[in-house]
Amino acid sequence: MSVAISDISKNGDAEVQILPFTLSGFYEDTANINSENNRIVFFSETFLREHPQEVPNLVGLLFKDTRHYHDKIEQIRASIDLDGNQQLIPSYDGKLNMNVKDSLVAVIMVLFFMFDGYLIIFNVAYISITRDVRFYGLLKMLGMTSAQIKQIVYYSVAKVAFFALPAGVLLGWGLSFYVVPLALSSYEGFSSIDRQVNLWVLLLALFFSALTLFLSYRAPAKKAGRISPIEASKHTDTQSGKQKSRGRHGAKIPYMSLKNILRSKKRLLFVVLTLFLGSTALVVLSTFLKSFSAEEYINAEVKYDIAMYNQMTRASFNPTEEQHFTPELLSQISAINGIRELERTTVVSIFQHYSDSTHGEWLRNYNKFRAGVNEELRDKKHYEEDPKTNFWGLLIGIDDKKLEEYNRTAKNPINVSEFSKGKIALVTDINGNGIPIGAQIPFTVIDNKKSYKVKIGGQMTFERDAMNSGAAPWLIVSNNVIHKYHSDAVIYSIKINAQKGKEQDVLNEVKLLTSGDSSISRTSKIEQAKAFADLKQSFSNLSIVIIIILSSIGVLNFINTILVSIVSRKQEFAVLASIGATKKQIKWLITFEGIWFALIAFVLTLTVGSGISYLIFNVLHEYIGYGVFRYPVTSLIIYSGVVLLICSIIPGLLYKFISRSNVIEQLRQAE
Where, if anywhere, are coiled coils annotated (predicted)? Predict the structure, then answer.
């Protein structure tokens, strides 16, 4: 393929050459390219040294270690010389705080899964120790101490851990390396996930898994060590403490099965909790997916059908910035059939002349803000001595209808006529607090060095819209008069609202007109809605994985509990059979035990789980500002039905498999 490389220096002159290149691959990690519609070719550093281009207007630095972040920023600031149009802009604490939040979420998730694992492992250990009470009693009778019995328990745990922990870590690695990216692959934002194996993460997973395993066995091991020979010889799994006389209703199978599962409240608690975690995860995640729709997101977050930006200006304002929205392009966009309204925002780089009368209160407010984020306070001399470098900002042009829209809800409406004629300018609520109304603000346009004064006629609410500039407060004037200050003010953005039903047609036309210029980025309601839908689909896939994992843990814990209960109660079932109970009746007894487990978990989910879901929704709603609470009734009914079906079928199948022998053989086996 042939690629045009512009401005290659040759013999001191700039010229365009066509050089042949072979496409050798696609670079997929585009996370740091913040622009849409890019057609970017990546070259080697060696090639760029041979063909030097113009100096980049934006250079990013990434620290290997973020400790002592601000000290490193100051070291860089002291070691490089910046000219009047260059700035070193740290990301402050925002990125670091986000890392802390991410870490907190990760810790909560780790603790959650540790707790879930603890529940099932503890239950297995507790059942195992209870089942082998007689064995540990015999060991005590033979002279073993409590410490030696604990060692036996921990040795058996260590043997299990030797095989189970590496297998579990490998399974977790497989889930994170293959299943999670597969679940997120439907969202374009995750299409280039960088999958890496970090040894420390695997070691930490191994450590926390081992910690969970041994903590789970700690209490059962103590119980094994405390068992006496006499207690062991008398032990049966059917002991239930204080006996109470019952009426005739106590003989009903559902009531008998409820009494059976209440014999061991600890076992009941652990089984119900593991089932509850799976169903609550379903409720919480389904509530999130149902409560935040793409339509609500678009209505709350995306104001215009289409928004286009001069991406280079958006990244770093430059007084000599190229006008990417040329008059020809603007004319073509305006002529698109189906546009209902079109709005422009223009910018001119300026620097202001500081004075206490106009900027004194503003500086005090600004320093209060800097003190709040632990930043160094500014002295007015910093702005007075070199305003071009230290007190530059933006002159922003807006359409009059933007001000008319603001006036509809403003407490103090602004005179649109005076604004349109250029008699007044405005400051913003973003960085203009403290500038007195009626003040005359002197400023100089940076590239043509012409000086002007504007009268401040009010303050309006203004969206930052990703604009960045120097320290000086922004000044807003009408697009009708901004050409008086600069003949070619750079168009920063063009916002379009289309006629109803013609949104896609207008978007297609805009794509056709702007796709050739990678410096023009674009957002649209249609594309944002698709991206949101893709994100929800990815989250839905990930939610399914989480729900399956948690539900599997709950079901496996239930199966293990029921299986051990049936095996350890062979004598009880044999006695029931000897006094006339049929296998069908015993089977129904066990089946109702499983049903009770499922029903208790369902009631707990319906109350506590629903409360957790509503609380999480309110927190998210408060944070993002949109969404309507929608309870996943259908999902919960289907899920609970499946769990109820499993809990009612499994006990009967296990009993059928175990009870193949006759009553006499069962009594002998129990002995």
Answer: none
Q: How far is 116 from 272, CA to CA, in rounded Å?
A: 12
Q: Domain check: are 146 and 158 in the same one?
A: yes
Instruction: Tell me the torsion sign for CA atoms 517, 522, 524, 527.
Output: positive
Those residues whose C-beta lies under 8 Å from the C-beta of residue 129, and which sit 6 or more positions away, are 136, 153, 220, 221, 223, 224
Among 45-49, 147-151, 347-351, the range scoring the smallest mean pLDDT is: 45-49
Has residue 67 been placed in a domain?
no
H/E/C letters for each residue in 32-90?
CCCCCCCCCCCCCHHHHHHCCCCCCCCCCCCCCCCCCHHHHHHHHHHHCCCCCCCCCCC
Residues 341 and 445 in one domain: yes
Please determine, for residue 302, whether its predicted confidence score (pLDDT) is greater than 70.
yes
> Tell me: the pLDDT tens digits for 501-539?
999 999 999 999 988 787 888 889 998 888 888 888 888
* DSSP state letter for 305: S
Domain range holding 636? 244-301+527-671
Distance, in Å, from the CA atom of 459 to the CA atom of 190, rounded to the nearest integer, reads 41
The DSSP string of 554-575 is HHHHHHHHHHHHHHHTHHHHHH
* 502 shares a domain with 577: no
pLDDT at 605 over 90: yes
Tokens 């070291």, located at residue: 75
Q: Which long-range contacts (CB under 8 A, 24 or more apart) does 22-29 make?
A: 28/191, 28/192, 29/192, 29/194
Q: What is the pLDDT of residue 92?
A: 52
**Number of domains comprising the chain:** 4
Taking Cα atoms as reference points, which of 65, 59, 66 lies closest to residue 89?
59
Could you tell me if 155 and 180 lie in one domain? yes
CA distance 13 to 478: 41
Quote the CA–CA distance of 592 and 255 in Å, as a whole number.
9
Q: How far apart are CA 125 and CA 655, in angstroms?
A: 22
Secondary structure element (H or E) that encloses residue 118, with its range: helix 94-131
Produce one character per residue of 366-383: b if its CB has 16 or more CB atoms within 10 Å, e if not.
beeeeeeeeeeeeeeebb
DSSP string for residues in 163-197:
HHHHHHHHHHHHIIIIIHHHHHTTSGGGTT-----
Percent of the chain with pLDDT strictly greater than 90: 29
Q: Could you count the other beta carbons within 10 Å of the beta carbon of residue 312? A: 20
CA distances from 272 to 287, 546, 643 (A): 22, 18, 12
Let me know if residue 197 belongs to a domain.
Answer: yes
Q: Are residues 389 and 534 in the same domain?
A: no
71 within domain boundaries: no
364 and 423 part of one domain: yes
The rounded distance, in Å, linking the Cα atoms of 185 and 28 is 14
Residue with tokens 């949109």: 626
Which tens digits make up the pLDDT trace of 10-68?
A: 444 445 556 677 777 765 554 444 444 445 666 777 777 776 665 555 677 777 666 66
Residue 282: strand, helix, or coil: helix
Cα distance between residue 210 and residue 212, in whole Å: 5
